[in-house]
Design a protein that fits this description.
Blueprint (H helix, E strand, L loop, with lengths): L1 H26 L7 E3 L2 E3 L10 H9 L10 E6 L13 E6 L6 E8 L13 E3 L11 E6 L6 E4 L10 E8 L16 E6 L2
Parallel strand pairs: 7-8
Antiparallel strand pairs: 1-2, 2-3, 3-9, 4-7, 4-10, 5-6, 5-9
Helix pairs in contact: 1-2
Protein name: DUF1214 domain-containing protein
InterPro entries: DUF1214 (IPR010621), DUF1214_C_sf (IPR037049), UCP009471 (IPR012038)
Organism: Roseibium album
């Protein structure tokens, strides 16, 4: 009887540990096998047969369809260049260049990755409608209030606790695998100020 109780206890604890660890991995909403470049994280195995089970569960739970390796690559930033979490009440400058791609878009979402309501009703910028410097670089001001030049609208009414992410999607780009991401340059995210 004592052995049976001991084995039952072990099975129950192992089950709780397994379910608990899976829950924690899925709740953090950051797939495994990330490639980090500055503030940006890419998940090149997302949408492929090589994706790990936790990543598949995260995308399935969030009803997110990742770009397949032949379509492009999504990069996500949750922090600025100083390592501070992005705050939707602040103003940011996103500057630099992106890797070669037929088209790219940049979107600001809330901390859970959902689109937000903005004053102009637009939630993204794209590479085809962007003002650039002579060397091909660009500067984007991300703020809830209008700015001159390239303006990425942030949430019209947001709290710091809502969190924020910048999502850069590169379509039809040669940098769709982890190995191809070595040595590429991505835009820098700088916090200019907060109210």
């Amino acid at each position: 009887m004592r052995t049976l109780s001991f084995l039952t206890l072990i099975v129950v604890l192992a089950s709780l540990l397994g379910i608990g660890s899976a829950y924690v991995m899925i709740e953090r909403e950051q797939p495994l096998n990330a490639v980090t470049i500055g503030s940006w994280r890419a998940y090149p195995k997302a949408g492929t047969a090589e994706a790990d089970p936790y990543s598949v569960a995260i995308y399935t739970r969030g009803a997110v369809v990742p770009l397949a390796s032949g379509e492009g690559l999504a990069l996500v930033a949750r922090e600025d260049r100083s390592g501070h979490l992005l705050d939707p009440t602040c103003i940011y400058r996103i500057s630099g260049q992106t890797p070669t791609a037929r088209l790219w878009t940049m979107t600001a979402t809330d901390g859970d990755g959902h689109l937000v309501e903005t004053r102009p009703g637009r939630v993204h910028l794209d590479s085809q409608n962007l003002l650039r410097n002579p060397d091909g670089s660009f500067e984007i001001n991300a703020a809830s209030e209008p700015h001159s030049g390239n303006w990425l609208p942030l949430a019209a009414s947001a709290n710091a606790s809502d969190g924020m992410r910048f999502v850069l999607r590169l379509y039809d780009a040669p940098v769709t695998t982890g190995a191809a991401l070595d040595g590429i340059t991505l835009p820098v995210i700088e916090r200019l100020g907060c109210p």
